[in-house]
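Exercise 3.2. Students should predict the tertiary structure of the chain below and write it as structure tokens, then compare their answer with the key that follows.

Predict this chain's 3D structure.
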Amino acid sequence: MNRVCVLMLALAALAGIDAAARPLRIGVEGSYPPFSRLDPDGVVRGFDIDIGAALCARLKATCEWVQLPFDGMIPALQAGKIDAIIASMTITEARKKQVAFTVKYYQSPARLLVKRGTRLDPTAAGLTGKRIGLQRGTTHDRFATEVFNAATIVRYNKQDDVFLDLIAERLDAVLTDSVVAGESFLKSKRGYKFELTGPTFTDPKYFGAGAGIALRHADTALKTELNAAIGAIRADDTYRQIQDRYFEFDIYGAVPEEGAR
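Answer key:
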């Protein structure tokens, strides 16, 4: 079993959760703060993780966190290695051909991130020849590939590697989630020389209708349970309490441009 799973199960036991509760294997990334991160103690934490834990409590299930690269999650789900994906995965028509989704549990737009003071025309023509960094297999990848097709798209396995190359000036801009850029990069010491620029990108064709929990198409009962659980934690203030640990704004709805700064 994955090392993270063992640690989380041990914590669950210490917390008094019923050891006989059904296991729910959940794919997480662990490298996408503030939504998920792998801490030095080997435990995965973040908004996605806390939401998943609250939903497991509603379902009387034991969360088993399985850390995977983002572009390997859908194949792992289809192969039966995990039961669900809680990894800020956007609900899109393209993905719905491969997996089923619950209702959304949050939503935020994409934006371009650049060195402060950079003059950049955030259009297809204006980005011609520019090096745009992004995480492989994301909605940002598909959007940039099709819309910014005259730019050089540089793909990375982890979001933090994208930020590192922006700092090293190997990229002209980064296309990423505005909340991830704002909360995990711009508010850090290494992010003070950078800023979000241009409009928010929210075209449903590429960015869908928010982040949902991905499931196998056949798991209709689990989808029904999770949809009900999302509604329940929204109704009883559990969601707001979790949100307030990480954000100073409403992460459930589309976040305004200034929200991620």
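Discussion points: The first strand starts at residue 22 and ends at 28. Residues 1-19, 254-261 have pLDDT under 50 and may be disordered.
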